[in-house]
Amino acid sequence: MAAAGRPVEMILEVKWCGSPYAVSVATTATVGELKLRIRDATGLPTKRQNLLWPDVDGALEDDVVLLSSLPVKDKPEVNLISLKENDFESYQALFWKQKRLISGEILIEDRRVRHKDFDGSLMNLFTGLFKLDILAIDCSIRKATKEFPVMISSFNTIKNFRHQNDVIVECFYKEGNQFRLVLSPQLDGTVQGWASAYGVSTLFCITDGSTKLSDLYRQIILDLCGVLMSLLKEGICARKVSESNLYLKVLSETPRLRVLIDEVEYLKDNAVAREKQITELWSGISNMVLASVKRCQVPSLSINSEGFCKFIGKQSTTLFGKHAIKKLNNYPDKWSNQEKGAYLIQLIAADKAQVWSLIRDSGLKWPKNENEKLPVELDALIKAAVGIGHVW
Q1: Domains identified in the chain and CATH numbers
Q2: Radius of gyration of the chain (CA)
Q3: Where is the Ubiquitin-like domain (predicted)?
Q4: Tens of pLDDT along 194-227?
């Protein structure tokens, strides 16, 4: 294949509010770069843009390369729709349908330059170029080390898995006696590097001598659980997920999680063995978050944030995917005392039989006489109420 020269330009017909706009963009451009061109043509801010291909109701992420998603047509078209919720499953179906239309020999160019993390340290990722037919995409190359070997069996298990927060392993190759993984998109750094560069306050909020998860770190955990739950839904369980697997891609100045799943196994057929697999997975994630508190040398987590960490995986007993993530996201670790009070008032007005079943299943040991202690959570609520003047 000839060496990649200047990127080829293509013309997209962008339809918005019934009017067509001709937008010129490089074939190697991402959706985010296309949005900038569309902004110049239409005046619509990039944050308000959702791009939908004809006949597919699915918006695309900003870091997706156009040629891996565009239908191969003489006149590619894209519809611009503002404020439409993303439907990733539709995008995923389109991605695989169109990807098969591009075929040929894959060529990997290893530039042998290591990526720098946010804090300037070097990562075990090298810059590279993924070439296939007319497609040329910047990629990252992960090389096997003694600490982080490349598990080819795991790659074969998840090679068709796609999630908006996972690092896609495009392919692997062998150099000498060592395997290399070709990853996309190109990654900007690690979660650890982000904290080192911009301070632990980006991950933790310290108030009144205790520590809470920042909005960024909480979202990283939610996104990580989303990837792992999607794998479980496919009958696959990730193994040995650690902070070294957590990368960030900065989109519109906002860091977004990209997790590299490099070791997996199928869920066991035996129910007991399968439950053990899943329990160990979620315990590992909870322990990883708790260990990051010690590593960052911040005060212990508040009772609410610690409860959130221990709740990880508990919501997935009967639920996988979006519903389980919604349940985890609704955990009341960020509720104010006023919100908690309003919730308790709602419980009073609710159906008693339903409330009683929830209490029985909560795991809290409620006192049965005046000599027994209150649950820690209820005791904390009462003390907070007394602190602002409530008297019983």
Answers
A1: 9-99 (3.10.20.90), 106-184 (3.30.200.20), 189-334 (1.10.510), 337-387 (no CATH)
A2: 24
A3: 8-81
A4: 999 999 999 999 888 889 999 999 999 999 999 9
